[in-house]
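Action item from last meeting closed. Structure (155 res):
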């Protein structure tokens, strides 16, 4: 189909109102995921995007997303991320921070605040709604890891 044959009105830009997200998506204990962008809703072929909300002082169950890469953007609250075979590593992110989760990494999201919900936007590298919930015995004191990328190292 050429661009002249496309109906840009129906096949162009889509606006998904924030109050019409779809919670009919795989969930992990402790969080509520809602899809905004996927194939069923807008015809997306290569990405999935949505929101996640974690109540105050709550945490998700350990899980991973198979071969998918995930990006989390923190809107409100304080995200404490734990990851590793025994969730032995931890780091925190706040509003405006991005979190990258590589494929197959066991992880757990924790709302580090006791009064306010944690609200984030999530983007994944594929349409497949992969959530593999894990039964992991977590270590008691995880090792803190600073958020430092290879391009912008701290002094």
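Sequence:
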């Amino acid at each position: 189909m050429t661009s002249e044959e496309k109906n840009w009105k129906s096949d162009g830009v889509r606006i998904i109102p924030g109050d019409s997200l779809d919670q009919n998506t795989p969930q992990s204990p402790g969080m509520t995921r809602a899809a905004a962008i996927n194939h069923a809703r807008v015809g997306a072929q290569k990405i999935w995007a949505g929101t996640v909300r974690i109540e105050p002082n709550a945490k998700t169950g350990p899980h991973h997303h198979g071969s998918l890469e995930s990006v989390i953007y923190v809107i409100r609250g304080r995200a404490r991320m734990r990851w590793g075979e025994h969730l032995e590593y931890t780091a925190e992110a706040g509003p405006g921070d991005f979190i990258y989760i590589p494929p197959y990494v066991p992880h757990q999201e924790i709302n580090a605040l006791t009064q306010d919900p944690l609200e984030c936007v999530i983007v994944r590298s594929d349409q497949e709604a992969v959530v593999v919930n894990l039964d992991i015995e977590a270590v008691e004191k995880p090792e803190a890891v600073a958020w430092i990328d290879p391009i912008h190292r701290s002094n």
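Note appended to the action item: The CA atoms of residues 51 and 121 lie 4 Å apart.
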